[in-house]
Structure formats: C-alpha cells, structure tokens
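User: structure tokens for this one?
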Amino acid sequence: TGKLLADKKILLAEMWIDKIRWSESKIYVDLPGKKIKESPEYDRSVPVDRDYEERLFEFYGRKGYWL
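Assistant:
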C-alpha cells in the first residue's frame, strides 16, 4: 500500500503476512490494498479479545483461526 498508511495504525493477524523486507522497511500482506486502506484504526487502549478478533476477521472476510 506504499504510503497509504503513513499516519494510520492498523492491526492485522500475523497469518496474513506474506513476507517482511527488513532492508526496505516493508511488510507484504495477503489482503487487498483497498481493504487495508478502509480498515479501522488500531486503538492501543482497547483490549484485543475474542470479540475484537471476530470483528477484525469479519471485516477482512477471513475465517477465524479458532474455528
């Protein structure tokens, strides 16, 4: 997504990461850029519990790992 998320923090499941290029400071994920751009902003004050995970996986159209 390039600089689309320069000022936005989002939370993604580690299983969606395809590769990390440390030398380029880039993370490649298995999600459409448009969906990432529309994703809800991550708020560190909100606990990441099962309900949060369910909403996140549903937003991205992914099946939960707990199923």
